[in-house]
Amino acid sequence: xxxxxxxxxxxxxxxxxxxxxxxxxxxxxxxxxxxxSLVPDPTRRRPGRGVHLHTDPACLASAQRRRVFGxxxxxxxxxxxxxxxxxxxxxxxxxxxxxxFDGQRQSTVDATASARTRxxxxxx
Length: 124
Prior knowledge:
By secondary structure, this protein is an alpha+beta fold. It has four helices and six strands.
């Protein structure tokens, strides 16, 4: 069997290469004429250019200190990183897939939803 290569991206904070599953995608969303907010995109489905970042606060601090978000996202204007800072600093939301676009916790999948997907036979 042929083993397929997994996608690898570079963290904009620490500049280390890592599998895409270990990184959080971040996009810029326009709020006003020249104000953009950095928003986490855990599902990797938001439109537009995205950058990848470890969920480590040190990587976020490094990226902010070096001002890489504007260049990497090709955004001209003021960048508000507060939604991203809140999402990353919230220790209960550090795992990938537990963030929504506004930094709120996603609803958990209940056991009944997974039970509905199983094939059920006739009662005997």
